[in-house]
Write a structure and sequence with these properties.
Blueprint lengths: L9 H7 L14 E4 H11 L5 H13 L4 E4 L3 H4 L5 H9 L1
Antiparallel strand pairs: 1-2
């Protein structure tokens, strides 16, 4: 499997060692909310679901150990009843 290259192939070795990482940066998405601020959106999003299911989902959010959540979408967009195509269009932009 794969490609076998002889170890004395200096062209390959020179080319492979020419790859460099020039910079590293931390970039956060536009939207962020504390987990406790997200919980009211769950009530709207899960309206009409079985109460036991709603409690489980809330427990997952509350006990995940995540105090702040980041997203490329606003909470209103995340927890809306949009179609797959609509959500996909958001990720593409």
């Amino acid at each position: 499997m794969g490609i076998s290259l002889p170890m004395d192939n200096t062209d390959y070795m020179n080319h492979a060692s020419a790859v460099r990482i020039k910079t590293v940066a931390k970039v956060l998405p536009e939207y962020s909310r504390n987990t406790e601020d997200i919980l009211p959106f769950l009530d709207i999003w899960l309206a009409g679901q079985d109460e036991r299911f709603v409690r489980k989902v809330k427990k997952i959010f509350e006990n995940a150990g995540v105090s702040k959540r980041y997203s490329i979408m606003s909470p209103e967009e995340v927890f809306s009843k949009s179609s797959f195509e609509e959500r996909n269009d958001i990720y593409i932009r």
